[in-house]
Amino acid sequence: MKKSFFTIGVMCYNEEGSIERVVKNIYEELSDLVKLQVLVVDDGSTDGSVHLVQSMQKEYSNLDLIAKEENEGIGSTLKSIYIEGLGDYIVAVPGDGQFDINELKDFLAFKEGIIVNLYRTENTTYSLFRNGLSFLNKIINKMLVGLQIKDVNWILIFRKSDLQSIFPIELKSNILTSEICAKLVSKGCSVIESKSKYLPRTSGKSRGASLRIVWKAAKETARLIWVVRRYRWRR
User: Fold this and answer.
1) 141 falls in which pLDDT band (50, 70, 90)?
2) What is the pLDDT of residue 124?
3) Beta carbons of 150 and 181 less than 8 angstroms apart
4) According to the model, what pLDDT value does residue 129 have?
5) What is the residue-wise DSSP string for 52-81?
6) In Å, what is the CA distance from 74 to each residue of 23, 77, 81, 84, 93?
7) The whole model's pTM is what?
């Protein structure tokens, strides 16, 4: 049987303490099961993350690196993965080691027209502020965009052909995943959802709820509504 061709995009920003372990774990768990492209997108790290990935490229011929000179945010990182990924399937995972790569093994092949959503339940290690942001994001997706997905900001697996069918991706912040999913659902894609564990961080510092990121996403919320509605009108 022909192996699926997977692009595992690894999002990295100052993950010197975990990025090597995350990349090696991907190869250890998946290289015998699928054809792999591991695409690390470094978002302007100021530590040794880029150097570590470059060292690993000597060992893995299908390990690619996009190193941005400046920190551009999660949205830019995701967009690079979705546009530059070569695989028939594309998934973005964090470089902090908080996602269990083994969870991908149940979804290594599926038909076009399907989105796989591995969602987190409420995380008690999160602050009240961050859990509140997650809840607000779900409300915006459901009430203003009509998107009923349990966690659009964790692990999403797409078929490359489905992604290409809704290009260009117009938003720039981390809420571009809402744009992608809303467009795909509008064109008839169905969603398969499965619970995902949220592993404890062993090094580094979480930056997922910084005020800069929150403000950037808030400014794009109105544009998200417009972009999705315009897409639906044109169909």
Assistant:
1) confident
2) 47
3) no
4) 47
5) HHHHHTTT-TTEEEEEESS---HHHHHHHH
6) 19, 5, 11, 15, 11
7) 0.91
**53-82 pLDDT tens trace:** 999 999 998 999 999 999 998 999 999 999
Euclidean distance between CA atoms 152 and 179, whole angstroms? 10
Structure tokens at 161: 């052909």
Average pLDDT, the chain: 89
Do residues 26 and 109 lie in contact, with contact meaning Cβ atoms separated by under 8 Å?
no
Amino acid identity at 73 = G
130 CA to centre of own chain? 18
Q: Which domains does the chain have, with CATH numbers?
A: 5-234 (3.90.550.10)
CA nearest 94: which of 124, 49, 125?
A: 49
Q: What are the Cα distances from residue 233, in Å, to 10, 35, 186, 226, 227?
A: 34, 38, 10, 10, 10
